[in-house]
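pls read this stuff:
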Amino acid sequence: MTPERSRDLVARLEASSAAAPARYRGTVLALTLTGLALIALVLCCLGGGLLVLVGLAAWLALHGSAALILLLKLGKLLVVLAIALWMLLKTTTRALFVRLPAPRGRELTRAEAPALFAALDRMRQQMKGPAFHQVLLVDDVNAAVVQRPAFGLVGWPRNYLLLGLPLLEGMSEAEALAVVAHEYGHLAGSHGHFAAFVYRLRLAWGTLHAVLEHQSSRVGRWIAAPLLHFVPYYNAYTFVLARADEYAADAASAALVGRDAACAALKRSRILGAQHERFIGRVFDGIAQEATPPSDITTRWAASLGEPLADADARLWLDSALDRVGLVADTHPTLRQRLSALDAGQSLDAAPAPLAGGSAAEAWLGHGLPALREALARDWVERVGEAWSERNQELAQQRQRLQELHAQTERSEAETYERWRLWLRLAPDTGLVEDVAAFNAGHPDAAPTLFFEGAARLAVGDASGIALLERAIALDVELTQPACSHAHPFLVERGDSAAEAWAQRWQHRATLEAAREAELARLTADAVLAAHGLDAGQIDALRQRLQAEKLAHVSRIHLARRVVRADPTVKAWVVGVEITWWGRQRSKTPELVQQLAAIEWPVPVVVAPLVAQFKPLTKKFRALPDARLLG
């Protein structure tokens, strides 16, 4: 199911759920039972089919010479089918019982953080949920509850609470408890036991779908097809329920700590996330000067929180977060919707007040906080140390190369672009702006150099670079993401509300490019083909080249343009190769594909052997006029 169809279906289901909530829940229950029955049916079919094949082989072996001859003739087919059924049965069963990795973090004990565990005990008593088996301290601006069943997706679960130290450093005790209570609400079933069961089942279906999607055998894909079609519809139908669960978890959080603290927590978590992202960015800005990462990053973060946060920054980050929509699969409503559901009133757009007292980290971790900061800082240094050192050396080499390019009196076009790239990356200044602007005076429609000038102007604080980036994108849409990566931080630093539009623009383009790359990376039988669009001279030259190659075991060669659904503007071509029966029997397919791929084509191509799995493509190639190059 495409993201667009999923969004449309979810919108219709939200309307039907609001009109008849009881009927909607009944539908979800029916789908849940259908899904469980479908898994049981698939497992029974796989197991039954395997037993039938084994029984048939045994029967043929025991019933005389004629049956034995038939067994020998059918032997390869029986073995292939048996192996396919066995592998799919094993894969499906393993997916149901896969052991999810245990969360990682610094384990906290009741003895070293008694205040924290006392708060968790009170929360558990009020919300009537299960106990935590482990509480882990991590270095994320987040808190999460993870349930890890003993036998993969079923069985006695172990419950983990993950607490991000950067989050606790910036929140009051009540606000941090509100965040934890929201996550715990899903586990405790604050939105009902059935909804909690569906919440966990969605995760199970997602894991099973990811495993079955990678089936390579034809038999495996055929048997797994019902499950692969069912999961997207189940996720869409339960999406509305899962989104309602988010509101219920917020309500449970507000019931525990109060509406004001719950609303403040929702807002402050977004602000802290953006603030921490900027902090980390500034830490990594020092990578060129420092050979090793700083060993006191957690202490630096805590110290930065002691400095007053500019009102403009807080308002900008909150405004950007209020209406931000997550990815298609994200069941969280927007921040504005969640605050409205909690009846935040007139304070909905107002940033939370600065912390009046100590932080949740100080209240919950007490005297052990300095040692915990050091432990997480050591883990961070160990995790990023190697990459930091490599990047530091890489930047030193780039600085040396930039000096060499500056010293040259004459440069090629490639060297000119390389010099600008390094200059912009390492030490942008007015000299770079003047250098690129002088070139652009004679080349007003050169998209890459317009991009360089725009980025260079922003780097020295000149807002006119925004208009230049817009012109560059208009000339070459592929420059959208790099342009956004310069425009967005520039506008954020200045508290300009236009920053959010650039962030959304980047996200939209990133989603499109990811979908495009995923589609291009995998050629399937349902690909859409169109006329290649090459001129007669190019086609004649290709035919002569192919004839000179003396391609044995090839009956026909076709060329067509592939229509990329995610981005129809992309130019991609496919070479379809029909291989003779004798060539297939002699396993010449890989050799022929490599031989054709080595040819210098006038356009970028993917060579596809038109074997059984691509039979529909063969018909599409033959239906296109002028697609045939050989044969």
Summary: Residues 67-73 have pLDDT under 50 and may be disordered. The chain is about 65% helix and 10% strand.
